[in-house]
Design goal:
This protein is an alpha+beta fold. The chain is built from one helix and eight strands; from the N terminus they run αββββββββ. A hairpin with a 5-residue loop joins strand 1 and strand 2. It starts with a helix and ends in a 6-residue tail after the last strand. This is Secreted protein. Keywords: Signal.
Length: 119
């Protein structure tokens, strides 16, 4: 009987862990940046609930041979470090959680969001 109770409790705890694991790895909210495409048109990109703790090369600007993105706005619940180089290299700046939009002079190619605290 104790084995069945222990097994049931263990499975319940494991299910709870799995249900919260995804949200603990993502910053909640949106991160925005702009870039100029190959036709000279300004484009806006939004990352929804971006993953925390890993480097992300940004769409259309994430390679060092491309023009960088600019004007980031961190409206997530986690701080983020933006990098001028691909693969989170080069000059870097910190943007606070739910901060104001940065000026268009702030350029970026990659980002790393802080892993948010457990909710």
């Amino acid at each position: 009987m104790k084995l069945r109770t222990t097994l049931g409790a263990s499975l319940g705890a494991f299910a709870l862990l799995l249900s919260t694991a995804g949200s603990a790895q993502a910053a909640q909210g949106e991160f925005h940046y702009k870039y100029v495409d190959g036709y000279g048109q300004e484009r806006h990109v939004t990352l929804h609930d971006p993953h925390g703790g890993k480097c992300v090369n940004l769409h259309a600007v994430g390679e060092d041979d491309e023009l960088p993105g600019y004007g980031p706005h961190n409206d997530t619940d986690a701080a983020v470090t933006v990098y001028l180089g691909a693969s989170c290299t080069g000059a870097e700046w910190r943007l606070r959680a739910h901060g104001k939009p940065a000026k268009d002079t702030l350029e970026l190619r990659s980002v790393r969001f802080d892993a948010p605290a457990a909710r």
